[in-house]
User: Fold these one by one.
Assistant:
Number 1:
Amino acid sequence: MQRLCFTNVYQRCFKKLCFLFVSFIVSFSVFALNVEVTVDNDTKSPSSYAMYKVVVSNTDGTTRSNVVLTTNVPSGALIYENSVLPQSDNSCSSSSCSEGEVPIWNLGDMSDGESRVIVIPLYVASNTVDGTELNFSASATYDGASSLSTDSHITYVDTALSAALSLTAAHQVVDAGAEVKYQVSFGNIGSTGFADTELSVSIPSGSSLVSASDGGTQAGSYIVWDVGVLNAGEGSKRYFTFSIDDSAIDGRIYVNQATLSNNDSALVTSGESVVVRDDVPLTLDVTMDMDVSQPGNYVYYRYVVANTGSTSLTDVELDVMMAERTRFLETSSLPYISNCTSSTCDSGEWGVYSIGQLDAGESRV
């Protein structure tokens, strides 16, 4: 199965598995396998999804057999198996995984430089109280491993969110030496203005800043924008480009963290990761007719899937998930996107367009 996936928060394109989402990350590499956990925001309100992405890569120089990934389910949260991409191996007692259950993904053999990505929308229960810490962890092992490779991240429950932040890369699978374009969207969703707002993005080791919009400057290992006053209901975007080292090996994961602050106090963080891999023939490009909209209005997205390789690909699939507070109608898509529980696809559901065979040089819109 060749699969591409997209959300209107981030875009993902790759072969075999899907990329999604992005967030604050701590790099953690143990022995043969690298495991990275990211989440779209480090604060979430009840009855919402924390969009986790788990990346497993092998940079050990040898094939590792029967790689298995497991995660926990934090107290106060659920994992709906049909929301995960790819789905876990029916390891929970029902259609949702709750605290104490361990979702399992059998990833098979992973050769040197190979990577896998699992997208896990973690649903924050409606009765989860303010200030709850959702400690999510993921661990990978393989035949003969002496210990687990593990990474984790804490998301905090906040019933009165004041800021929104999203960091996205134009492509999540890149070649060594590539220039990667990013977008940072931010806004004040509270009722009080921010008097001294600053936006910063970390520059990961092994990459360098090429350009930054709107007067962004490099300060040590960060790009910094002085936003100034950000009134309630206001928001904006910033753009920057990084260059990946020419010597980066396949499976190397680069992580950026964005932070929106007011008066030197962090309001929210978001992050993104890209992985180096030179053998992915599928590309996914997404455009939209507007980047600002009003409640009740339509935003039109255009997806272009292309085979840039030299051979035909079979079972190509495009998976689409909308952000929270948005939905799309299956019958309004062209070609028809299906697979949702009703004629409307809501956040947490994957709409599927089965492309089938895609010959070398061929594309679908």
Number 2:
Amino acid sequence: MSELGPNDFFDNGRIVQKEPRVKSNENDRLITFSDGVIAITITLMAFEIRLPDSAVPWTDATLWQALLDLSPQYRAYLLSFLVIGVFWLGHRSKFTHITRHSQALVWLNMLFLCEIGFMPFATDVLAQSGERLATILYAGTVATISLTSGAMTFYAMRAGLAETQHDAMIKAMLSILTPALVFCLSIPIALFDPRLAQLSWLLLIPANILAGRFGRQPQS
């Protein structure tokens, strides 16, 4: 008769193998809390897109014009959705490797979430103005979030909280710090041309792709 393994048991004379128990990550609660804060932040940004108050009932013509006038809010929302999406993907990727935590890591994560929570305000300011100061405020906010996220990754590597190869964490670090590079470079551009600085933020898409490809390159 076959020997029973650690995951086997008898059922009506047959040997049945149990599903192996998945090892729990002690950061599960931290990850769930972070996901919730990020989801609420995106929801709050959507709430900022509102029709202006009107003393008379909306007609098709006036409603259409009002919707067109909200185009800065649409653009700002889509931009921030993309930016926060990049941060969320980086956060999830990072914590697949970081399997333990310390008080310092928890507080760094709280600082990261505090800065993420500021995004609806920065987004609204950008949508309402779009001039030099609003552009610098938005770029500075995104760069600060990126640097905080990078500091969290660096600390986890140095503190031995990650159960993974060094190369995998370097790849995660590159992806996380890409927004800091793109948005920091846009700040001096905004001093001369805020619109050009805002257009430069589109470089986040190819830069993030390149960072991912660079991280996958085999080491010689």
Number 3:
Amino acid sequence: MKVIDFSGVPPSAQAVRAAGYAGAVRYISPPREPWMKGKPATAAEVSDYKAHALDTAFVWQYGGASNPDAMRGARGGEDDAKAADEQLKLIKRTGYPVFFAVDFDITLDQWNSVAVHYFRAACKVLGRERVGIYGHSRVCDWAREDGVIGSAGGGKYLMWQTAAWAQPRGHVHPAAVLYQHTHNVSGPGGTKIDINDVLHTYWGQCPPDKRPKPKLPVGTELVKYLKVQPDKVRLLQKHFTPGRGGKKIRYITRHHLAGVADGNTVWGWWQTRQASAHYVIAPDTRVWQLVWDRDTAWSNANAASNAESIAIEHSNAPGKDYPITPEVIVAGARWAAALCLHYGLGRPVFGKNIRDHREFGPTSCPYHLAKGGKYHQQWMDEAQRFYDILVEAKTGNALAPRPPAPAPAEPAPDGGGDADPDETEDTMNLDTIVTGFAGGDKPIRAPLWHFILHADRNSFDALVETRVLAAQVKELRDRLDATE
């Protein structure tokens, strides 16, 4: 994913999006020279970006190479941070972080004697979590070591590194969230731009307390998949068929959006287009549900296939030839694995319970995800790996439970919270074979979980959740005991 920055006349948000960029880092400082028409960003501009699903982060730089802002010391840092905060409020971006530019080949002596005090003063005004730095890789690291820039989570910091003055040449700091590698080239609308790689899910595009959640270790997010609980739900009211016409779910169909969008944006697209899918994997890896599983999405251009499948759309990333980020590939594969387990479809196998859109109509979709495409094997490997993890998490219930009929009308509520192993330890064996009734008047013999599932879906989910959480709490306690 790439974003741009510029000082000249701002290109329109439409032009930026059409060029394949995900957004921009915008100056909120006043112009130093008359030609700097892009300083400062305006409320209308950032609002237009938002309307076009583009993100914005913000940078402060008034001084040039001969009079750098950071070499004004503590008083300069205080004044600039206050001015930056006021400008953010003016453009209705209160609480966003600010990258303060160190746009020259600063030395360690200059940093220690003057510049670090500029950043410390900025931290006092804004709070450290709202302070970032732009500069070469070494000054980014000095700022991290001195604790004067915010954390971006996941071992990353609010570092916007430029390729200029890097030692060794081409070195990219592993904790950077942005990397400016191309300078002063013609961009959208003819404006001269710099081009930056986005290296992390959070790069200053929202206030710190609203930043995207970091990717959690597999063990802590299993409950979401065991319960088939999407992150967001925004249901379509048209362009799908209620029910499945008596058909059963037999496979998952892979799609790509041929665009960059989350569930909200796609929901808007499908208001005027006669198409839909059950799920959308957004660029931030969140799973959006737009059609209930029990209903038929208009996804495969084939009525028979639609009635027997669950459709998963994967957001592309900005760039040519419809790339998809590794994070979205993993998220889509994991969600498919969860659905395969939930509906008793078995371990993901292409051609059996995993299919591609292009099998059912004249389309190239899902393009690089399709069998033979460059993302296919990565997706399948993750789907199978994660399916095996989910089966293990059932604590011995190797057979997936059959879904209720009809499929759940909505995701099961999340119980949430940590469980105390002493209070949630199971006194029963869910695999115990018992005789009872489930969905009929004839007695049958089956594992206990089968009857719990059909009697009360929420009770079954609660048992699964408490067993998983209890194991997680025990693991955490063991780790804490080992470090004390």
Number 4:
Amino acid sequence: MANSIVRYTGADPNGETNVMSKITVITAGLMSLAEMPKADSYTLRLWAKAAVARTVTAYIGNTPFTMAITTAWKVFKFTATAAADSTCELYLPAGTYYVWHPMLERSTKASDYRQAPEDVQENIDTAAENAVTEANTYTNYVLQDYVTIEDMHSEIRQTQEEISMSVSKQITRSMTYAEVQAGNALTAANNTTDNKLLNYVTTTKYTSDFKILSDKITSAVTATETLATYVDGDFYNQITNEYSSAITQTANSITSTVSKTYATITTVNGIATRVTTAESTISQQANQIALRVTKAGLVSEINASSGQITMSSNRFVINSTYFTLAANGTVTASKTSGIAAGETITLTVTPADPDDGDCSLSSISVKNGEAEVALTNYTFTMPAANVTVKAVFDKITYIGIKKPSRAKKVGDIVFNDG
């Protein structure tokens, strides 16, 4: 950890709350206060105290002065001659020090404390900002400061092989205002939050592209929105939203995609970053339609063809008063939960009996992930992991013969426990 000096708000020698310097010294050493051109005499005046009593040495040029700093405020005054260009310094042992109203002047006598010109200007600027803030509080922010920058661009390109068009627009807005709470807004903000003055910079960028080829047409639209927040000039928080949509059309397919990426970067006692991406895609062909939605690692898919519809998702929710799921057959297990590795499980296969024809079992399999689990006479041994049972039923078509009675129906195969 390095030595540091920061602005600190605490009780001054008069017992009033004021801003002062807090100096934390890890490794003892010299701290420069000011450069001193050659002159007859300089006088150093300052108030100081320490967390634990310390002996500090002040140097005006080459002349040392001993400062016995205690835990209570004490004023120190020293005068010396600078025979050559030199510096005014403090030699500080390890410890924590508080310094208020330090002043070095070209004089043989210490005068009353007065602020440096740059400090006076800073106070003037602060007072002006506070006046605008209070005015905004009671005038619905009529006096907000806005800076707007716009950058727009459009382009059309044409060659023998393609025609393409693009349009882009970027808008940057910056505004400064005080967060206001109900009641006495300024007082409440000063008392309850360090973020009483926030600076916002908003950037929005739009881009659209359209391209025509002999065998393909593509179009895309993107938007990026960034909101950055700064406190006292330091980066505090940034939120970025990126949106994108695209359509690709060929002679035998249409694919459309919509995506969103949400990213946050926050600096509060460290740096934390979070990125979330969501995307949906629809792919359409003559014999198939596929839908896919992804977000934060979760995927849901629906694939529809003339022969079947396949759905996969982390969770299925059906809200309906009347709901029927028709299938060509069912498979039930002698046990579905609380199964120990090594147990024998028996499957019961029941083909359906639709109005337009019977069904029969075409294939059945049991898998542990991608590994096949041995199945004998619809019975298998449970491995030390979950398994998936998949069965395919086909309809039976009767040509030129009478449909058999229910008692002779193909596919009525039942295996019971035991």
